[in-house]
Design goal:
Blueprint (H helix, E strand, L loop, with lengths): L1 E5 L3 H14 L4 E5 L2 H11 L3 E5 L7 H9 L6 E5 L4 H9 L4 E4 L4 H16 L6 E4 L2 E4 L4 E4 L2 E4 L2 H12 L5 E2 H9 L6 H16 L9 E4 L3 E4 L6
Helix pairs in contact: 1-5, 2-3, 4-8, 6-8
The structure holds calcium ion.
Length: 229
């Protein structure tokens, strides 16, 4: 298994390396201190997971994530010193799967990486889920609706799988957070909104006026009745 750290701060890099060596002695760790080199390494090495620092010397972490997402669905964790939710939401919008706010503990980082890897590795190669005309291919990580087929990120798959399994009943935000992060964050609803919006953009004819993924205000999300899909 390979991990790529795109991080310009040597101390943070050492800290992460140490944490990873404790959590996964067999893991191969690659490093890049700049965004451009990091992108090139994702292409060349096909890592299993990537961490991206938002403040890099050449281009911003957002640009790095966006570029990576143009050719890869590799799980991306953002490491950011900026705790403000708008920064995190922006990183998620650009396609990050997960975030850790600096300063973080080694155990926290290990836990976050473990959840993310488990989520990716637990994909059953045969698994195809459907509800009405909506179908989710967990192996290919694609969603089909009407005549559209779109690629999903790992997190989007996790959210949509949960909605499909509920067969039209409401999935609470807490339970979505639990599936994504293994716990409910106090400020996770902003992030969940982003995932839902991305799913709607990929599925709905008019994402601003959704007919497939519906909102139960203050509670969560559900799929429209099977017969009306
Ligand atoms: Ca930095």
């Amino acid at each position: 298994m390979k991990i790529l750290l795109i991080e310009d701060n040597q101390n943070v890099c050492d800290f992460i390396t140490l944490a990873l060596e404790i959590g996964w002695p067999e893991l191969k760790i690659h490093k890049s201190s700049s965004g451009e080199t990091g992108i090139a390494l994702v292409k060349a090495l096909h890592p299993d997971i990537v961490t991206v620092d938002l403040g890099l010397p050449d281009i911003s972490g957002y640009e790095v994530i966006k570029e990576i997402r143009s050719f890869s669905e590799v799980p991306v964790i953002v490491l950011t010193a900026r705790g403000e939710e708008k920064d995190i939401v922006k990183a998620l919008e650009f396609g990050a799967d997960e975030y850790v706010i600096k300063p973080f503990g080694q155990m926290e980082l290990i836990a976050r990486i473990r959840v993310l890897l488990r989520r990716y590795q637990s994909r059953n190669p045969e698994q195809l889920l459907s509800f009405g005309k909506l179908s989710l291919d967990l192996a290919k990580r694609t969603v089909r609706y009407n005549l559209k087929e779109e690629m999903l990120t790992g997190t989007e798959c996790t959210v949509l799988k949960q909605l499909i399994e509920k067969e039209g009943l409401v999935t609470t935000r807490e339970s979505i957070a639990e599936k994504i992060w293994g716990t409910d964050y106090a400020d996770s609803s902003g992030a969940i909104k982003v995932y839902i919006r991305h799913l709607r953009e990929k599925i709905e004819d008019d994402p601003g006026n959704p007919k497939v993924i519906l909102t139960r205000f203050g509670i969560g999300y559900y799929l429209a009745k099977e017969t009306s899909l």
